From TrEMBL:
Pfam families tied to this protein: tRNA_edit
Protein source organism: Streptomyces pseudovenezuelae
Lineage: Bacteria, Bacillati, Actinomycetota, Actinomycetes, Kitasatosporales
Transmembrane segments: none
InterPro entries: YbaK/aa-tRNA-synt-asso_dom_sf (IPR036754), YbaK/aa-tRNA-synth-assoc-dom (IPR007214)
Residue ranges occupied by any YbaK/aminoacyl-tRNA synthetase-associated domain in the UniProt entry: 29-153
Domain of life of the source: Bacteria
Name of the protein described by the UniProt record: YbaK/prolyl-tRNA synthetase associated domain-containing protein
Length: 173
């Protein structure tokens, strides 16, 4: 069962979409947070899903940034591309506690939007090109569908190539 923070994030997202006059569709389903499984429940290919990963980007010894990388569900985050994008010394996955605090959602429910100024959103160009973009709506039991163009207009992500093909022998990130 989602906690109160999840509902606050969900309500904030719906309010933002309504205020921005974004046409969207809510999809209720069994609780699920893994990309392949939730895509099957929603009935669409993984390429139409927004996979959202919180990254820790160490620019230098004193500067750490947090980035929400949004890639198609059938791809993985290209850490080297993110490192080059920020001219960083190190890029890795954020620890769970930091990711949950910044994303205001539990793993598997992270939105491709940021409601925290410390979390910058970078979306792969393939995400914003989608006619239909699906993602869990800060809840394991409810998803949202909207166009990639509307997503880009409202979320205002930095659009950069940050995805690489997922390989069967490596874990998708």
């Amino acid at each position: 069962m989602p906690g109160a923070d999840a509902y606050d994030t969900y309500d904030r997202l719906i309010s933002l979409l309504d205020a921005s006059r974004v046409e969207h569709r809510l999809i209720d389903h069994a609780p699920e947070g893994t990309t392949d499984a939730v895509c099957a429940l929603r009935g669409h290919p993984a390429s139409e899903a927004a996979k959202c990963i919180v990254l820790r980007v160490k620019v230098d010894r004193r500067t750490t940034r947090h980035v929400l990388a949004v890639v198609p569900g059938d791809r993985r985050v290209d850490l080297d591309a993110v490192r080059a994008l920020y001219a960083a010394r190190y890029v890795g996955f954020s620890d769970a506690e930091t990711a949950e605090r910044l994303a205001r959602a539990i793993p598997g429910t992270v939105l491709p939007f940021s409601f925290d100024p410390e979390l910058e959103v970078v979306a792969d160009p393939e995400v914003v090109k989608q006619p239909r973009l699906y993602f869990n709506a800060a809840r394991l039991d409810r998803s949202l569908c909207l166009s990639g163009a509307d997503y880009e207009r409202v979320a205002k992500p930095r659009v950069e190539p940050v995805a690489t093909p997922a390989h069967a022998d490596t874990p998708a990130g």
